[in-house]
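Q: Sequence in, structure out?
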Amino acid sequence: MCAQLHNAAVDVIVTAHNMESCIGACLDSLERQTFESLRVVVVEDGSTDGTAAIAQDFAARHARFSVISTGGLGAGGARNKGMQEVRAPYFMILDGDDVFHPDMVEALHRAAVDGDADIAICDMQEMDDASGALTHPLWALKQSQLPAKGAFNGWRGMDGNIFAAFMGWPWDKLYRTEFVRKRGLSFPEDLPNSEDMVFTYQALVLAKRLAVANRVLVDHRMGRGSTVSSSREWAPLAFYDAICRVKAFLREQPDGTWEKLQRDYLSWAFDWTLWNIETMPDEGTRHMMARTLHDGALEALELEEHPASFFAAYPRSMQRYATLMTWLDADSRDSGPLGRLDALPYGAYKFWDFMNPAQKALAAWRERHPKPSEW
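A: Exactly. Output:
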């Protein structure tokens, strides 16, 4: 049995911190995987509840599972510790509160092998922690940005925006071990949040081949609450630090990588900045972040170096930006880095103040009858 474990084709790293209520469901879903050549390593990172006991009991009953306990390294450190344990040709890095469809590993491994890919990516759906209700957000894997074929030559082999096409999280992806180690990829351990984005987008940009298993294979738990969510409140600009790190990485790449990806990356970074401000729970912090954006302090976004149309690739970005600026006093809302709000390139999604009555009626109807959308 030991030889079988050491010769697994895929190693699965599961990180868990205070997940007593859900780690069992996660491990059960991995035990039910149809892919047999599998080893699972749980990195239990300084939990103060029953997470460690549940994981250790599970490992005692299932030979393919083992547990490593660490002393509160944080998300980045726990994932790095897990990657050090990888021996298989491919590996995954999963969160201990998610649930995985029985053929997830099999489908991703097949996509990676058949496509000779460094990374294989699948689709996901959200699972409400309280009710178990499932919702499929089309923005998690944007089909409009992807080639029709299942495997392709990385970002150079796609017409769309690689940052828009894939989310900056690691748990819907399978990685070729040799690729990750040869490139020296790891998670930053000094970021309280957004460390996953740095690792994931560096990997996606460096991958020579990417493959997509175009199916929902992950149920991503929402509404449970987490230390990462709370860290956004006490470190609200960590996301911007992550943006700066990936930008510096892109500028260091050869063969004109930055020149080719600059607009795609900055458009995505602007969109992600808007999301980080909009979703900050504390109102005072939201307004502070909006003021920081208005004052041009987020220089790495280059908002004052390009016309507003440069950042209009995301359909609702101008509307959302204008809304944030109106949180500020009336005298300053038009003096932000993109200039006057009434002159922005809104496209189909205008800011409310600049809609005619018919457009306002349509917008109100859409709010009452939402439809799934990539954006």
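The first helix runs from residue 2 to 6.
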